[in-house]
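Posting this for the archive.
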Amino acid sequence: IGLADDRSGGAGAGAAAEAIAARLDGLDRSDGAGDPEELIDALGTIAHPLGAPPLVRLLVAVPAGKEAEVAPLVDPALDAVLAILRDRGARPRALPDGRTRQRLRDELALAHLGDLARSPLAAVRLRAAAALGDVDARGAEDILARLLTDRDPAVRVAAGEALALRAEYVPGATLTALESALRGGRRELVLPAALGLAARKRAEAFQPLLLVAKAGEPDERARALVALGSLGDRRALDHLLPLLDPAPDDEAGRALTPAAAEALGRLLPSLDADTAADLRARLERLATSAAGEVRLRALTGLRYAGDLAVVERVAADRETRSEVRVHAAEQLGLAAAPASEPVLAELLSDDDDDVREAALGALAKVVGGDRTRVSLHGLAARHDARRSPRRRA
């Protein structure tokens, strides 16, 4: 196992991976001999392509009746495979919605994730589907389209979510599989398929999203509302505005108010000037004076609308609750607008540790990861902001 210390990626790492892979292939787990997890972790540490095949075989060539024996190894083995597939020379892609897409070695990823998608274990197929959302290559769509018909509904949903993610963030992604899923009518695929179409501003997403927003599970309803805002269809106003002020006894409506606030912010750029002005004023009031999650989601909505002045003002307001200021600073980081650099630089001198930490992370995004620039701002701050401060206990 000491061979795992060789991470050079050259001949030494390849030899180490081959040696450990041979031990893993030859391990007899029926008598409890050996520790497969130690070998699996070592292959993930080395992260050499030669370490992937035995891990994939472990998860795909599962003898009938042996599923329970392999189940405890699924997560560590998949973690190791994904470590091998990851492109360590490229940073993960931070997405505007706060999610992250890993950068994978696409050719290698397609080969191994395609095999993993045929595993008899649903947990393996599910994680393979999710990982395919990080693959830019067109071949990922064919594998995901196959997984849309998987016998396990959770796998089908994971495949739909991955296709929706690619539809939004991979320029060359097609919508064929999502359109087919929407026509197919499987209930669990309506939302992910509509999300992908909405990301491309496809009008046919409106009715499915509205259906889920009215009749889905609570978390599905909230996601559908946000997607209605992203779709940019003015018809959504009639369904979103009432949720900002639901009846006192409408508990379900009140639960959706935060999502509606964000959705309306996302919708703002698609509205005519007069309608947008009235709605913007309403959202700004929520962002500066509402309570709880409604205020946070209104700030998020304004960030999507490009109205960063209010977000900057909230982040800088020392009379505002810490968690609200932190959220505002994080939104400025996600917006990555150069004009926010002075505001974030000033926040490095704030007395609130959490605000300084959020400002530091946001500033790094605004300046495109330029560490020198961030350090210069840190040197000018009243506190040592060159490294992330500790959070208060």
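Confidence is low (pLDDT under 50) at residues 388-393. The radius of gyration is 24 Å.
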